[in-house]
Amino acid sequence: MKKHGFIAHLLLNAVAFLVVSSLYSGMHVADFWAALAASIVFGIVNVLLGSVLRLLSLPLNFLTFGLFTFVINALLLLVTAELYDGLQIQGFSAALIAALLFSIVNAVLSSFFGKKEKD
Fold first, then answer.
1. pLDDT tens profile 57-95
2. How many Cβ atoms sit within 10 Å of the Cβ of residue 107?
3. What is the pTM of this model?
4. Are 50 and 72 in contact (CB under 8 A)?
5. What does 26-50 look like in DSSP terms, one character per residue?
6. Would you kindly state where each structural domain of the chain is located, as residue ranges?
7. Do residues 98 and 81 touch, judged by C-beta distance below 8 A?
């Protein structure tokens, strides 16, 4: 992964944290810098735990047509909130809703600011 692609991904996640925080009261992040720090911690948690959890839950993910991914993302958000005080999430159900919103916001942002096809 290129350095500027990694930084762009962190920035998009930070904006997604801010948008979800403003849309949903079950998750709170104070400002952009707190969102950026949460994005960094979330990235580390995702790399260390996310891959293992996704691999272990493949059969369950297959049975639920991929919907179990939201449960994994909710767990990763809860771990991130435990590790970083700048992110507050009010329980597992709030984390599940936040994970769903985070995925939607991230998809929309990525469609606007993601990789552009070269002709």
1. 999 999 999 999 999 999 999 999 999 999 999 999 999
2. 11
3. 0.88
4. yes
5. TEEE-SHHHHHHHHHHHHHHIIIII
6. 3-112
7. no
